[in-house]
Amino acid sequence: MTMPTAVALEDAKVAFRLGDGRVYTAVEKAHLAVAQGEFVAIVGPTGCGKSTLLNVAAGLLKPAAGSVKIFERPLAGLNREAGYLFQADALFPWKTALDNVAIGLEIKGTPRAEALPLAQKWLTSVGLGAFANRYPHMLSGGQRKRVALAQVLIRDPKILLMDEPFGPLDAQTRQVMGNLLLELWNADRKAVLFVTHDLEEAIALADRVVIMSAGPSSRIIGDWRVSLPRPRDIFEVRLDKEFHALHREIWSVLKDEVMKGYAQSTHAAEAV
Amino acid sequence: MSRPTLFALQVLVAVVCIVLWQVLSTVPVFGKILLPPFFFSNPLDVFSQIVKWFASGVIWKHLGITLAESILAFVIGSLGGVLVGFWFARQPLVAAVFDPYVKMVNALPRVVLAPIFALWLGLGIWSKVALGVTLVFFIVFFNVYQGVKEVSRTVLDNGRMLGMSERQLMQHVYWPSALSWMFSSLHTSVGFAVVGAVVGEYLGSAAGLGYLIQQAEGVFDVAGVFAGMFVLSAFVILIDYGVTLVERRLLVWRPTASDGRG
């Protein structure tokens, strides 16, 4: 790859101090590089620290050791090149859909009169042109995700960080959202780091799938290239032979970790 | 149940109560009047007293004074509550230092402050305003404090990731969140502003609804006391209705504006 590296985690270690003074190591020596224009999915069992890793890339968390580089420069403070799509609802409940999208520009100092038509354009491109004056509570879960996507994309970040963004949605809505994401991403191919626990979703969306081991002290244990042709349709791509072969191959590794993660979580519960 | 039926039933309750009151206070049952007029008056006398007040116009002056005191108490108490609530929520050290004193003052029954306020501020409207302020302040203060402290972590992180500065976070996240908590306690705080005004008047004043009731009581004019109570309830219901209108406008973004009262 000759493309510059958008996000580089170099031996990043994440640890938390627990209430009783012990140190809990969430992620051990993670080494990961996302090239510009590349879509990378991180998959791992529940509690493996994949969201933690994403927060490190966002600058919301500081690594205990190792370094984070954004476009070859060490990251200090928040990652200003990145847009972050949260798993939980992160829209401002007191702003309408339109204002929620426009705020991304207004923060940068764009006058409101200029920001509003652009926000309307973005709402239309996520399919919510007619819902501009709705407040978040009047929208469905899927619609709120669309607004959140527009809110992040209107700022045109060079990097997209996504933390199980479609996790709370039902299966059909997830697929529709996946296709929408691919369509929007295809327009200018930002670097994407996409965290999910759904392997199928990861293969269908990404250029590369990275697998993490069960926590604590989880590591990156696998890295597969997905060479399915683009543009993809999430509904179609799941029927592809190559998709199945890859799914089987990755799942054979992931399955053990899922079982381990499950055993550990029940064990931990018994210890308490 | 349809609205007209409900309304008819609601009116029926009032009619039954008033008729019972009228009958029991004028017609002897087994040779005995169950509600002696000296203690209970009767609806006709009460009604004619109310009509007399409105016809002669004396009531307007008293209503105006009570309204002015309530509004002043509400505005001053809310402003103070918002400012101090914000300050404490953003400065945990200050909050921790003042915590026992806040609890102590809030635990004090505010009525005992009335004589002190009368002493300091005289018998005019300001001693009543002060009493109302001590009631309103704490409600608004606790709500704003809570509102600023309980801003959703995700919404806050989202604001940061969107590039908000501390000042912008204040404007777009903390402030709306605190205001929504304050507005959700609007009914309570407005109600307490009126309570402060009326109790203050009752304990010593020269005008206002509380004064009117206290005067009637002083001469054993039970009809006057009841008339004052009815005018007061109507007054509070009207104000409460106004608050509901304001609330509906300000909290449109809330899922259910009415059941989020703190």
Automatic annotation (TrEMBL), chain A:
Molecular function in Gene Ontology: ATP binding; ATP hydrolysis activity
SMART domains in the record: AAA
Domain ABC transporter per the UniProt entry, residue ranges: 9-239
Presence of the UniProt keyword Transport in the record: yes
Signal peptide start-end: none
Pfam families with a match to the protein in the record: ABC_tran
Keyword annotations: ATP-binding, Nucleotide-binding, Transport
Coiled-coil annotated residue ranges, if any: none
Superkingdom: Bacteria
Family from the record: Belongs to the ABC transporter superfamily.
Function statement: Involved in beta-(1-->2)glucan export. Transmembrane domains (TMD) form a pore in the inner membrane and the ATP-binding domain (NBD) is responsible for energy generation.
Designated name of the protein: NitT/TauT family transport system ATP-binding protein
Originating organism: Bradyrhizobium sacchari
TrEMBL record, chain B:
PROSITE patterns: ABC_TM1
Ranges annotated as spanning the membrane: 70-89, 101-123, 129-148, 192-212, 219-239
Pfam families: BPD_transp_1 (PF00528)
GO BP term, pick one: transmembrane transport
Main location: membrane
UniProt keyword terms in alphabetical order: Cell membrane, Membrane, Transmembrane, Transmembrane helix, Transport
A single Gene Ontology CC term: plasma membrane
Membrane topology: Multi-pass membrane protein
Subcellular location field: Cell membrane
ATP-binding in keyword set: no
Domain ABC transmembrane type-1: 63-247
Family according to the record: Belongs to the binding-protein-dependent transport system permease family.
Protein name (record): NitT/TauT family transport system permease protein
Source species taxonomy: Bacteria, Pseudomonadati, Pseudomonadota, Alphaproteobacteria, Hyphomicrobiales
